[in-house]
Amino acid sequence: MTTETRDLFDLTGRNAVVTGAGGAIGRAVSVGLAQKGASVVLVDIREEPLLEAAAEVEKYGKAFVVVGDTTRPAGAAAIVAQATRALPQVDIVFNNVGAGSHTVPELQTFEEFEDNIRVNLTGSFLIAQGFGRGMIDGGTRGSIINTASTCGVRAMGRGNFGFSIAKAGVIQMTRELAIEWGHLGIRVNAIAPCQLDTPGVLSMMDWDDPSGMTFGERVLTGIPLGRLATTADMVGPVLFLASDAAAFVSGVLLPVDGGNLAACAAGSIRRSKGDVSTPTHR
């Protein structure tokens, strides 16, 4: 009897597309995919950070750059066409474009709400659909990974209204595509990050929160591991979902949140080894 010892995470010979590749998560995941052997098409609407990310990827493997707008049908179609000219068979898509806003619902304009839906949900659909069609036509048993958010599972307040609704849509889109395309061997999953230590989030840490705490204090009370996520924390989960290690995983939302979604809003999270006191019930 023999035991197979091949690397289930090996992506040698596979081709990946990463949207939002000029951003922190997209760049880190692009490099991670290349380190495991994949060739990577990096997509972003901004050329300068995209070229910087591609230069990092090229230290480990092949990188191709596509500048384009995922949020409009013509733009998404152009991205798919350019990407498939560079890599005719796409095996992995990391659907990662996203942007938030912080306007309470009573003050949010229609334009801001629509922009949240268009950037976070519509663009994700157009990219999944475009590359999904290519996988179907080519008979590719591919993997599509969408970036959702803990905001799409639990209400956050703080004016995350449009963003949260859009990310909830991404989660349901993930499930629907997994059901629709599973018989073709196409797996569709999503990751749900919590707040990351990006410059944007870090700049908000001292903001006043409706709870009476600072924004930073309020966020950390809900993360049992006691810190913000990092971009590096996203790489392993995406590699898992892209690889043969997840060959029978589809339709799943994988929280990458330090335990945030496991915690009840009224739950008490211990912060020290000696914190074992039991409150008196009244």
What does the secondary structure layout of this molecule look like, with pairings?
Elements: E1 15-19, H1 24-35, E2 39-44, H2 47-57, E3 63-67, H3 73-86, E4 92-95, H4 110-138, E5 143-147, H5 161-181, E6 187-193, H6 199-202, H7 215-221, H8 231-242, E7 253-256
Parallel strand pairs: 1-2, 1-4, 2-3, 4-5, 5-6, 6-7
Helix pairs in contact: 1-2, 1-8, 3-4, 4-5
CATH fourth-tier homologous superfamily: NAD(P)-binding Rossmann-like Domain
Spatial order of strands in the largest sheet: 3-2-1-4-5-6-7
Instruction: Write down the secondary-structure element order.
Output: EHEHEHEHEHEHHHE
Task: Give the number of DSSP strands.
Answer: 7
Global Rg: 20 Å
Intertermini distance: 62 Å
What does this structure look like?
- This protein is of the alpha/beta class.
- The chain has one domain (15-194, 229-253): 3-Layer(aba) Sandwich (Rossmann fold), CATH 3.40.50.720.
- Helix content is 39%, strand content 13%.
- It has eight helices and seven strands.
- The protein has helices at 24-35, 47-57, 73-86, 110-138, 161-181, 199-202, 215-221, 231-242; strands at residues 15-19, 39-44, 63-67, 92-95, 143-147, 187-193, 253-256.
- A seven-stranded parallel β-sheet has the order 3-2-1-4-5-6-7, sandwiched between helices.
- The longest helix is centred in the middle third of the chain and has 29 residues, at 110-138.
- The protein is globular and about 55 Å long.
